[in-house]
Write a structure and sequence with these properties.
The complex is a heterodimer of chains A (about 130) and B (about 550). Chain A contains seven helices and five strands. Chain A has about 130 residues and is α/β, with parallel strands linked by helices. In chain A, strands 2-1-3-4-5 form a five-stranded parallel beta sheet, sandwiched between helices. In chain A, helix 3 packs parallel to helix 4 and helix 4 runs parallel beside helix 5. Chain B has about 550 residues and is of the alpha+beta class. Among the domains of chain B are: about 200 residues; about 180 residues, Heat Shock Protein 90 (2-Layer Sandwich), CATH 3.30.565.10. Chain B has nine helices and seven strands; from the N terminus they run ααααααβαββαββαββ. In chain B, the strands form two sheets. A five-stranded mixed beta sheet of chain B has the order 2-4-5-7-6, with helices on one face. In chain B, strands 1-3 form a two-stranded antiparallel sheet. In chain B, a hairpin with a 3-residue loop joins strand 4 and strand 5. At the A-B interface, helix 1 of A face helix 5 of B.
């Protein structure tokens, strides 16, 4: 069964990058990639029901409008079972602490090591479900 | 003596001298009076002698004329005899007060002589020559008596006059002696009294003068003579009061000086504090500039990092894709004719090479950006196990090239005595690198400054880094041969905002932050050894198991 991954980033090229990086997995039907360019768009996409096999990757905490941490909080409040991985350039303790507090599954610093990311995705409970 | 006033003493002296003078004068006048009395007496006796001589002459006339009258009966002779007798009587009257006995005797003899002469005249008139002659002889006896009496008067008078003259001369001598003796006694008395009185005034005055001079010199503890009841005593009392007031004034002066010194000290302290505050303010401004520059750098680095990630990612992806293309299109390419196949393969190889170069240079740029971020503010420090010597090499390169970038003429001999057996150690690399960069930068600055200041042609700036494994700790020594640190500022080295560099060149935060990083973050020690004008050596010890260290402390 294929796993939906929603990637949220205000940078359009991030989508392109993920698409290319995950092209083999997509071809093999392991993952289905979805993209949202803002927190609001992500929430509306989640509302349309692409669960339960969803993993949300927030590739940027700093986004215009709703920021990554707020979005994380919102997602974990409404869909507590959905694993969320945080990706950000800011590796400071305060953000990491808040991300943990809000229930992030992972906290990955930029630049994204895609091999590591794929490894973590495989280890996620829902990833094996 | 000090119980009688000086004025009384002087009056007493004057009165006494006047009394002595008066006494001497009285004595002298007495002598003179007596002398003049004797002289007058002598003069009278001399005139008596004259009278006696005159009487003798007149008696000669008288006896002649009596004899003549007796013999001649001439009336004229009788007249002459009377006249002579009258003149004789005048002389005798003058003598009578002095020698009444003699004069009375002479009177009686003359009366007898006159009677005898009258009887002789009667004899002669009766021609009794013999009787007359006998009477005349009798008369001759009386004449001789008178002559003898007169002579005796003269003798006596002369004798008396001599006696008187001698007496008056003795008087005069006595007077002179008395005068001289009196004068000498008076002089001696006057001198002694004067000496005694002057002494009684002078010696206490001198003592008082000594005290005054001493007090004038400022020796306020000098003894003041015990005050008597005279004027000097009053002066001594006044001097005592003056001294007391001077002592009081001195005490007040000292108190005031102390107060002034305290005020000065307080003012100096306040000024120093103000100066320090101003310096701190300047440094704060500088630090703020540096901080904002650091933030700017971090911001720029961060902004560059995102596009750079895309470049690197897409380059890596492109390599992968090209590999896939190579595999997928491999049979098609192989089916091409030789020329086209060679051309296609060359293009693919070149494309692959270019992508590798993009990845390579992208990674290089990424490393620079990472390093910039790591050394700017706000980066978090994570403990990592690192090779200390490699960290030092990296810091040395960074510091050296940084210094060269700032100053083209900068050069220094770097010596490394690195203990290659040091096992990897767990520390916060960014922060320890910061410490190293700081120590190395300071060493470069000091060595270079000595080169600029000393003008020694032979002077070569040098810096040596030594590492040692101490088992449960590692030791890093950074030693430069620069200007050294003056002893008086050594304890301020690690104070925030303390700097010896000109404003704008140093924040005064480097060693302070280094101190925090070494002691608080890593539980280690940092110490300094220096000889002014010769060298400075910083020693950092980092324990292998840090105590109370908090990772990720924002420095």
């Amino acid at each position: 069964m294929s796993l939906s991954i929603l990637i949220v980033d205000d940078e359009p090229d991030v989508g392109e990058l993920f698409r290319q990086r995950f092209r083999r997995e997509a071809r093999q039907g392991l993952y289905v990639l979805h993209f949202a360019y803002s927190g609001e768009e992500a929430l509306s996409k989640l509302d349309t029901g692409i669960r339960p096999e969803l993993i949300v990757i927030l590739s940027d905490i700093n986004m215009p409008g709703m920021d990554g941490l707020t979005l994380l909080h919102e997602i974990k409040t409404r869909w507590p079972d959905v694993p969320v991985m945080m990706v950000t350039a800011y590796g400071d303790d305060e953000r990491r602490r808040r991300a943990d507090e809000y229930g992030a599954a992972e906290f990955i610093t930029k630049p994204v090591d895609f091999d590591l990311l794929k490894e973590r995705l495989r280890q996620l409970p829902s990833g094996t479900a | 003596m000090p119980f009688v006033s000086i004025r009384a003493r002087l009056i007493f002296l004057a009165v006494l001298l006047l009394a002595i003078l008066a006494l001497a004068s009285v004595l002298l006048i007495g002598e003179l009076v007596r002398g003049s009395h004797d002289l007058a007496e002598e003069a009278r006796l001399v005139s008596i002698v004259k009278n006696a001589n005159s009487a003798s002459k007149h008696f000669g006339d008288l006896k002649y004329w009596i004899t003549d009258a007796a013999k001649t009966f001439l009336a004229r002779s009788q007249q002459n005899a009377d006249a002579a007798k009258a003149r004789l009587n005048l002389d005798l009257q003058a003598i009578a007060p002095v020698d009444p006995t003699g004069v009375a005797a002479i009177g009686r003899e003359i009366a007898t002589l006159t009677e005898v002469a009258r009887k002789a005249a009667e004899s002669y008139s009766s021609d009794d020559s013999a009787g007359g002659n006998a009477l005349m002889q009798q008369a001759q006896i009386h004449v001789l008596n008178v002559d003898r009496e007169i002579e005796q008067i003269v003798d006596r008078s002369e004798q008396n006059a001599l006696v008187r003259r001698d007496a008056s001369m003795r008087q005069a001598e006595t007077a002179v002696t008395v005068s001289i003796a009196g004068g000498i006694i008076t002089l001696v008395l006057a001198l002694s009294l004067t000496a005694v009185i002057v002494r009684s005034i002078n010696s206490p005055l001198r003592r008082l003068e000594h005290s005054m001079a001493a007090i004038t010199r400022g020796e306020l503890e000098a003894a003041i003579p015990r005050p008597g009841r005279d004027e000097i005593g009053a002066m001594a009392s006044a001097l005592g009061m003056l001294r007391d007031s001077l002592i009081e004034r001195d005490r007040l002066d000292r108190a005031r000086q102390r107060a002034e010194a305290e005020i000065r000290a307080a003012r100096d302290a306040a000024e120093a504090a103000l100066g320090e505050l101003k310096a701190a303010q300047a440094n704060l401004i500088q630090a703020e500039k540096m901080a904002s520059l650091g933030q700017l750098t971090a911001g720029i680095a961060h902004e560059i990092k995102n596009p750079l990630n895309f470049v690197n990612n897409f380059a890596a992806l492109s390599t992968e894709l090209l590999d896939e293309l190579n595999q997928t299109a491999g049979p098609a390419i192989a089916a091409l004719d030789d020329d086209r196949r060679a051309e296609t393969e060359e293009v693919i190889a070149t494309l692959m090479g270019n992508l590798h170069k993009i990845v390579e240079h992208g990674n290089r740029a990424d490393a620079i950006v990472k390093s910039m971020l790591a050394h700017s503010r706000g980066t978090s420090g994570e403990r990592q196990t690192v090779n200390l010597n490699a960290l030092i090499e990296e810091a040395l390169n960074l510091a050296y090239h940084g210094a060269r970038a700032q100053d083209q003429s900068f050069n220094i001999t770097l010596e490394r005595e690195l203990d290659t057996t040091i096992a990897p150690i767990e520390l916060v690399p960014q922060d320890v690198t910061r410490v190293l960069l700081n120590l190395l930068g300071n060493g470069f600055y000091a060595a270079n400054r000595r080169r600029q200041q000393s003008g020694e042609a032979a002077f070569r700036p040098a810096l040596r880094v030594t590492t040692r494994d101490l088992g449960d700790a590692v030791e890093i020594r950074v030693r430069d041969n620069g200007t050294g640190i003056p002893p008086n500022i050594r304890d301020k080295l690690f104070q925030p905002f303390f700097t010896t560099k000109p404003t704008g060149e140093g924040t005064g935060l480097g060693l302070s932050i280094s101190y925090d990083i070494v002691t608080q973050q890593h539980g280690g020690t940092i110490s300094v050894d220096s000889e002014f004008g010769a060298f400075t050596e910083f020693t950092v010890r980092l324990p292998r198991r840090a105590h109370g260290a908090t990772a990720g402390r924002a420095a």
